[in-house]
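Students often ask why inverse folding is considered easier than folding. One informal answer: many sequences map to the same fold, so there is more than one right answer. In these notes we will look at a single instance of the problem. The structure comes first.
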């Protein structure tokens, strides 16, 4: 009976979302606060109904209720409890319910907002309600997670073993919170276009209203992508952390659009300029999120990240994407000629730097979109198959982003309206000098054949030092007494520290990615017990291989000793090959030895025989220098977004502009 309650709650949420949209439209047309308040109540009730449905689905997984088709297809009684719960969003149906939960939850927060003008708020709540109707209807009629099986099987089929991992258990909630958080930016942009706001005084306030939602979504998406990349790094056994998989690109595109939106919204808020472009980016970020959902769930591509579902449901998702995007961009094309420009600024100014930043970010997003969709388009048109992988992105995206990162530190040091490039260059002279010295040192000390890698190290240092230049100058470090500098530190707004951390975190990531990619060393060969493989300065010896039993798998576990050839203290690690009887699948558990910023990365392969007939195992070893920075950098970036979100100017400044709007 409890499962039927979940199905009823989902249907009730669909009806409440429809009621939310109708009441909000009626409240806007009649200018009725009563009807608008009822729409708010419907939005909150819809979110609660989806929350109840989601809790019931988790309960069904936790008690292994195999009479539910979704549970039978994705769970098993031997599975640890954490992965039973995570399996609730590990399938197409469950993850779609998670999507609806985040969508209605953000809609409820939007409806409860008190600082938006009445007309804009009611229109945005109506749009959010219609989005809820589309996705909840898709869940109820084609992807219901509560469908029953009769007769119920005695045992389930279990979730893909690759997905039974702590990082991937928390990856989807963060990823979807970022994806679907952009729906509020979408609704606010569409509402502004529906209202036909042509007066320049409206858009600065609108930029401030949309920026917290963009910040929260972008920061959550950053965490989600990083967790997914970290999972791929240590779970798949490929030795790397990013593979330009189409599903990885599906999350990277809205991240790029969200980053462009954040910078564009600053111009709109501060100067009232590029309002149309900011509205376009607000809609594009969510449309790209929906495109990602289509790619993952339609069956048009094959990936360990993808949900293998039938094409009919993929066509329905494509219809939702086409309807939503078509209406939004059609309205944009109709309204954008009426939007009046805001403040005028010189090309060399902080506004100009932010616009240039937007051009590079959107060009990068378009490049990733082309690389992701081109193979699908080519196959659909003439049946040809082509693979677009790292060489394409290295040739197109890397130079584009390198130029963008090279000019990034100049933006915060330029004045609004009209800037001074020579002055900014003078202030960045120390950062530039240190970055060049570090690049030359890397070229001379590491490998003179890898000049591009050395230049990349200099670029990462340039980003970090350039990001720190502005706050160091503002607190007048080493120029005034330390107590005065500390007082100035406390006086700087959180938004300034957030931007500094985000840009510095990007530099940390660049350092890690460049060094790990450029200087990685790999070695592989069959080894018997007691033999070793050397990779760079490290030596990995296979000491023992034993069979161990896990909660729902059997494994060959290799015990290994990792030593630095120069004589560092040895460390013991393990690497495994696991067999899951429920699904008949074999997976690899990587052995990782964290050595400061470096990783010694070991994969235990299949058993074989030496020429003498002794048992031997294939052993692959990577030395990944500075790999820690690859994941530390995005964490710093997300922290910067969180700090900016806590800035009082974003939380309390809205009401001061409300009257002007």
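Output (designed amino acids):
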């Amino acid at each position: 009976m409890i499962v039927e309650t979940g199905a009823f709650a989902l249907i009730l949420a669909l009806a409440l979302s429809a009621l939310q949209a109708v009441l909000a439209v009626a409240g806007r047309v009649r200018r009725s606060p009563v009807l608008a308040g009822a729409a708010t109540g419907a939005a909150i009730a819809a979110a609660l109904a989806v929350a109840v449905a989601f809790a019931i689905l988790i309960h069904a997984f936790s008690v292994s209720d195999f009479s539910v088709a979704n549970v039978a297809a994705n769970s098993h009684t031997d599975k640890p409890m954490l992965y039973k719960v995570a399996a609730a969003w590990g399938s197409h149906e469950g993850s779609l319910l998670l999507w609806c939960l985040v969508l209605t939850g953000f809609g409820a927060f939007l409806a409860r907002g008190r600082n938006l003008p009445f007309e804009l708020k009611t229109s945005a709540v109506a749009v959010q309600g219609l989005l809820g109707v589309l996705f909840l209807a898709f869940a109820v009629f084609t992807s219901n997670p509560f469908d029953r099986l009769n007769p119920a099987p005695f045992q389930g089929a279990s979730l893909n073993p690759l997905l039974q991992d702590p990082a991937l258990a928390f990856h989807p909630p963060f990823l979807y919170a970022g994806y679907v958080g952009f729906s509020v930016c979408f609704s606010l942009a569409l509402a502004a276009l529906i209202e036909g706001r042509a007066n320049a005084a409206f858009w600065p306030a609108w930029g401030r209203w949309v920026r917290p939602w963009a910040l929260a979504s972008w920061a959550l998406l950053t965490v989600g992508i990083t967790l997914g990349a970290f999972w791929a790094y240590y779970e798949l056994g490929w030795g790397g952390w990013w593979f330009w998989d189409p599903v990885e690109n599906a999350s990277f595109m809205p991240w790029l659009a969200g980053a462009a939106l954040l910078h564009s919204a600053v111009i709109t808020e501060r100067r009232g300029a590029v309002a149309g472009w900011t509205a376009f980016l607000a809609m594009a970020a969510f449309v790209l999120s929906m495109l990602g959902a289509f790619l993952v769930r339609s069956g048009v591509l094959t990936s360990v990240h993808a949900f293998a579902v039938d094409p009919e449901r993929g066509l329905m998702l494509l219809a939702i994407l086409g309807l939503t995007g078509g209406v939004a961009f059609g309205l944009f094309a109709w309204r954008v000629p009426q939007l009046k420009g805001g403040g005028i600024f010189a090309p060399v100014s902080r506004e100009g730097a932010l616009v240039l930043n937007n051009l590079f970010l959107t060009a990068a997003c378009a490049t990733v979109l082309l690389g992701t969709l081109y193979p699908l388009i080519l196959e659909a048109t003439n049946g040809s198959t082509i693979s677009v992988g790292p060489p394409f992105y290295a040739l197109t995206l890397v130079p584009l982003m390198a130029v963008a990162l090279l000019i990034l530190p100049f933006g915060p040091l330029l004045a609004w309206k009209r800037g001074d490039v020579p002055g900014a260059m003078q202030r960045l002279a120390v950062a530039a000098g240190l970055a060049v010295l570090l690049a030359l040192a890397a070229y001379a000390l590491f490998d003179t054949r890898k000049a591009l890698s050395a230049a990349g190290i200099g670029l990462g240092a340039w980003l970090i030092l350039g990001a720190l230049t502005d706050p160091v100058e503002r607190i007048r470090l080493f120029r005034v007494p330390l107590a005065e500098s500390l007082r100035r530190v406390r006086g700087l707004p959180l938004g300034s520290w957030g931007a500094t951390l985000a840009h510095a975190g990007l530099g940390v990531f660049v350092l890690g990615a460049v060094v790990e990619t450029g200087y990685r060393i790999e070695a592989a060969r069959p080894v018997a017990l007691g033999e070793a493989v050397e990779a760079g300065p490290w030596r990995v010896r296979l000491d023992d291989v034993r069979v161990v039993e896990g909660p729902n798998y059997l494994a060959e576990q290799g015990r290994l000793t990792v030593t630095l050839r120069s004589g560092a203290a040895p460390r013991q690690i393990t690497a495994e090959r696991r067999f899951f009887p429920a699904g008949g699948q074999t997976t690899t558990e990587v052995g990782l030895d964290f050595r400061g910023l470096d990783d010694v990365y070991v994969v235990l392969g299949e058993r074989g025989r030496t020429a003498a007939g002794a048992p031997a195992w294939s052993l692959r070893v990577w030395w990944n220098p500075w790999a820690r920075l690859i994941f530390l950098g995005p964490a710093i970036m997300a922290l910067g977004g969180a700090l900016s979100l806590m800035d009082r100017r974003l939380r309390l400044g809205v009401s001061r502009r409300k009257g002007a709007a």
